[in-house]
Prior knowledge:
It is globular, with a radius of gyration of 24 Å. The protein is built from one helix and ten strands; from the N terminus they run E-E-E-E-E-E-E-E-E-E-H. The protein has a five-stranded antiparallel beta sheet, with no helix packed on it. Strands 1-2-3 form a three-stranded antiparallel beta sheet, with no helix packed on it. It has a two-stranded antiparallel sheet with strand order 8-9.
Amino acid sequence: xxxxxxxxxxxxxxxxxxxxxxxxxxxxxxxxxxxxxxxxxxxxxxxxxxxxxxxxxxxxxxxxxxxxxxxxxxxxxxxxxxxxxxxxxxxxxxxxxxxxxxxxxxxxxxxxxxxxxxxxxxxxxxxxxxxxxxxxxxxxxxxxxxxx
Length: 148
C-alpha cells in the first residue's frame, strides 16, 4: 500500500473464561508503526474466522459470534472499519465469504440483519404467546348523545 508494507494480525483475547474477543492489528513492521489495534467483537472461542483480501487491500472477516450468527467486517489497509453487519443462517445455509474471479470478496448465503427493522416489544410478544389480544379502546362519540 503506497510503497509501505502492512502486516495484519487477528488476535483472540479472553478477558473472562466465558468471553473471547477478536482484535485486528494493522502495522508496518519496517517502520515500527501501528496503524490500528481495535476490537472487532466477540467470537466463538474455538472456531476460526474466514479471512480474505480484495484487490483494494481491504480485509474481509466473517466471524461466528453465536449459534447461526456471524459478524462480517470490512476494514481498509489502515485498519479503519468500512462496514460491519450481522448475518444469520438462513434456511440452514450459513453466510460465507467468497472470492470472485476479479478478486472482489462477497458474502454468499445467510441473511443480513437490518438494524433499522423495528422490533416488537417483549411484552407484546408475551401477550400474544399467552393468547391475550390487545383490545383497542372504542372511538369517542362526537358531540352529545340523544337525550333520554
